[in-house]
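Please, structure for the following, as tokens.
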Amino acid sequence: MQTKTKNITLVLFLLTASLLMINIIYQDPTASIAHRIDLAKLFFYIGIIGFILCLKFIELKEIYLFLITFTIIAYGISLYHNLNLLKINYETYLYYEMLFD
């Protein structure tokens, strides 16, 4: 695996995993955004499966290139949903803080 793609995949994995944990912990149970966290989890799991398949098919260049691109895209989509959820959760937190102060 090339160093550049390995580092990009690793950074996206760690960032997405940490944001996913934060969003699960601080999720607003009354908001109607539960489907977005499910989408973030789905694309995160797809990225994990894609990375495992990348490690399995590392000798076959055509399949490897497709799988690493697929993995990076899946992590990117999951990161997008996680950042959007983080923004929504933070705005909800500020709203409730302002409401009860």
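The chain has one domain: 3-100. The CA atoms of residues 54 and 68 lie 6 Å apart.
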